[in-house]
TrEMBL record:
Highest classification ranks of the organism: Eukaryota, Metazoa, Chordata, Craniata, Vertebrata
Region (Disordered): 1-36
Domain DH intervals: 41-225
SUPFAM superfamilies, alphabetized: DBL homology domain (DH-domain), PH domain-like
GO biological process: intracellular signal transduction
Protein name (record): ARHG4 factor
Biased amino acid composition, Basic and acidic residues: 12-23
Cytoplasm recorded as keyword: yes
UniProt GO cellular component terms: cytoplasm
Cytoplasm among keywords: yes
Pfam families: RhoGEF
Molecular function, one GO term: guanyl-nucleotide exchange factor activity
């Protein structure tokens, strides 16, 4: 985060004459010029959240209009499946973020930014943010497909032409496509920063606190889904490496390998022992 490099010069709320706290009902505290207050810090964070959100919307718009639209015009170069692999569900993310930024701006208090109550916006959109899960899980495939295409000059020139036409900064397409992954990880950091400078008496305090937990849960859920998909992929690869596999696929009943190792199998009545490799999955051995 670029904001709040300086800690406030004094604790908040400030003590005024007579040792009583200044807790004016308006929530606005007046101090001499040059003093940094908790309100000023909160203003900085709110401004940062709003401005990064506007930048991000422009970024998504540039990808959807600068790249995807142009790619769709070139059916000779891209199939719809390829575009789905490269861009995932970024158009869904763009639609969701447009609504989210409008909700944020409605809650933004231009005259007194520190009084803005933005926590409820994050709470309202927490389930919609789960669409990032699909995008994050697809991202490694997008990188592989792009890496394959950019070995061919005509694709390199095409992507560069898209970037120049859209007047985007000089970063390769895979760099632009990493932004949504970074964005969903950044929300908990911004909200933690906002909570730090929100007075417990502030009307937004409870919502910001709940929003921070909600966005941590979204990030956790995305990581959990990603981990499960990786596990499923490992099991499928493991099974395909075994010759003459018999019976149903492991993935019909299980999605995680818990443990593997050698065991001694003892057959009665001769009590013959043999070393065997055993694999314990979440629903079968």
């Amino acid at each position: 985060l670029r904001v709040n490099q300086d800690e406030p010069m004094e604790d908040y709320p400030l003590k005024v004459e007579g040792g009583k706290e200044d807790d004016s009902s308006s929530g606005t505290r007046r101090f001499g010029m040059g003093q940094t207050t908790k309100d000023q810090m909160r203003t900085n964070v709110i401004n940062e959240i709003i401005s990064t959100e506007r930048d991000y919307i422009k970024h998504l718009k540039d990808i959807c209009e600068g790249y995807i639209k142009q790619c769709r015009k070139r059916a000779d170069m891209f199939t719809e499946d390829q575009l789905k692999t490269i861009f995932g569900n970024i158009e869904d993310i763009y639609r969701c973020q447009k609504k989210f930024v409008k909700a944020l701006e409605k809650k933004f208090n231009k005259d007194h930014p520190h009084l803005s109550e933005v926590g409820s916006c994050f709470l309202e959109y927490q389930t919609e943010f789960q669409i990032y899960s699909e995008y994050c899980n697809n991202h490694p495939n997008a990188c592989m497909e792009l890496s394959r295409l950019t070995k061919v000059n005509k694709y390199v020139y095409f992507f560069e032409a898209c970037r120049l036409l859209q007047k985007m900064i000089d970063i390769s397409l895979d760099g632009f496509l990493l932004t949504p992954v970074q964005k969903i990880c950044k929300y908990p950091l911004q909200l933690a920063e906002l909570l730090k400078y929100t007075n417990p008496q502030h009307r937004d305090f409870k919502d910001v606190e709940a929003a921070l937990n909600a966005m941590k849960n979204v990030a956790r859920l995305i990581n959990e889904r990603k981990r499960r998909l990786e596990n499923i992929d490992k099991i499928a690869q493991w099974q395909s490496s075994i010759e003459d596999w018999e019976g149903e696929d492991v993935l019909v009943r299980s999605s995680e390998l818990i443990y593997s190792g050698e065991l001694t199998k003892i057959s009665h009545p001769q009590a013959k022992s043999q070393q065997r490799m055993f694999f314990l999955f979440d629903h079968q051995l």
